[in-house]
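Troubleshooting: if your tokenizer reports a length mismatch, compare your output against this known-good record of 309 residues.
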Amino acid sequence: MTRLSVPSFAKINWTLKVLGKRSDGYHQIRTIYQTVDLSEEVVFEATPHPAIRLEVRGRTVARGKDNLLYRTADLLQKTAGSRTGVKIKLQKKIPVGAGLGGGASNAAVALLALNQLWDCQLGETKLVELATQLGSDVPFFLVGGTALGSGRGAEVVPLPDTLGPQSLIALYPHLEISTRKAYALGNWGRYSGTQTLTEEVVETTMQDLLRAVDRKGEGWSFLENDFEDVLFDHYPVLVEAREALRKAGCARVMLCGSGSTLLGFGSENQVKEAAEAVSRKGIGEILLCRILPREKYRQSLVEAGLFVS
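Known-good structure output:
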């Protein structure tokens, strides 16, 4: 096999708590990740020469060696000592700087695809190590589904795939906010504690999440994002987008990750009606999607020809 065409899915964060800045310069967080069915395709074609070539169409992203896909291929090539090259084609569909994890997802599928195409034979532990070097969200996309993230986000614990079908609206207000910029705007204080993810913590987290997203919507307040207070103060367009979704009937509205996308939750009818109402206002780009359980996430990768452990 010399060619793979692989789906690269987006994510949302059900919750995102920033616990403070650590002594190593990173921020300690606790989050609940979730893959969604918003995706783009990445094509990898092995070449006999060691050059890495990257072609990106669609949305504007960093090019060449500044692109995370390129850096992923370069890191894996050097780590494995591969003398084979690759031509990568990406049709960029997931908004950039939106908190949807598009770049991190690209990097994760690149690790899986190139480990296979180049016959690097790197095990899961090594791939996770490389993913952590590439970005805090990258290890999550080696797992997918619902997962608890801690540390700087790279420590990932899969949660049970017990959430029922959930529809949501993602409103991207044509505003790109980098993770670095989002953290720089906040005053997070210092983190010097220790954080242990016990079985009790994992079980309690899942119970709280299930209550938050059930059809009654009695626990929506559990869904929190600490970046909201910071970014809403700096970007009035986010406040406008939030109010538009609320007025359109979404049962709960929140910021996605550290980016600029606003997520609207509710019943399937509420979400569809909200999408129609907001689209008439022309505030931003509307993306309708559904949560993607781990089983379906991994099945999609296997169907694309990847060996997923």
